Amino acid sequence: MTINLKGRSFLSLKDFSGEEIRYLLDLSKDLKAKRKRGEPGTSLRGKSILLLFEKTSSRTRCSFEVAAIEEGGYATYIAPGSSQFGKKESIADSAQIFARYYHGIEYRGYAQKVVEDLAKYSGIPVWNGLTDDEHPTQILADLLTIEENISKPLSEVKVVFCGDIRNNMSYSWMYGCAKLGMHYVAYGPPELAPSQPVLDQAREIAEGTGAVIEWGSDPSLLAGADVVYTDVWASMGEEDQIPERARLLKPYKVTEELMAATGNPDVVFLHCLPAFHDFDTALAAEQKELGHDIREVDDKVFKSKASKVFDEAENRLHTIKAILVATLGD
Ligand code: CP
Ligand code: NVA
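A: This is the predicted complex of the input protein with phosphoric acid mono(formamide)ester.
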């Protein structure tokens, strides 16, 4: 089957077939190898892209920017609060105007509807760099890291996501695993249960792929995990929830004991980053003063051999480059 993603937006993994996700992973591997050989890319020559951020970023912003430049393109970064977008100008108006300057738009912000409207009104490829509901580009990097570190097909891999199981990462994982026939477990407290419509959509996809999508609070769900994944307990925009989350999520912190409970000596630890694993960040230190321990992963696990988080962060670049090349490249 020939896969052609030219002109497509990348808003959610729900919009892509398993074969299309496979194609993007294979392209990521090719582009990673090409970069290691020092071969410059030309696929985005003459193409300008906009990086529109309403929330902060390190990895996503840098990956889009470097990927565009390494393929011969150009990128403009708009930092949160630094344009007319959404405040003095409607999404529909801004989208049509951006499309007069740019060939594609990366957007990071709050509601998923905003990224969808940007695609609808601009008519050019729009890439979701994180919303409250999804973080689909991150999943591609995670899948690539899994394939580099676990020698079995993705369809045999069990991923256990620990912590805030109703956040954007958990939901994008759910769709990604459903599409690829994987086993996904969301392990967290009932107070933060995944939304029923998201579960229903993921399970409907899973019916066609053989995926298993589960959630619960029982530690027995950890058994046989190939990957233990976690994310911050309060996502961007949810800072007021920190005290409650620190209380609810303490039992789901990724510790050496939790890793051992998988029963898999080769289990891999992944985290989208940024992570709280010590008190060396201003936010973790400030919350500690207030009596809240917000570390979602133990420092020992974060720095252990099982942890592939820095490879995972590097893979953001290669996978984002693959998305740009596939949807916009020559
Ligand atoms: N993982 C991730 O999206 O990181 P940034 O917030 O730094 O972009
Ligand atoms: N769930 C986190 C992911 C950060 C990459 C957030 O939305 O803040």
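The longest strand covers residues 48-53. The two ends are 20 Å apart (CA to CA).
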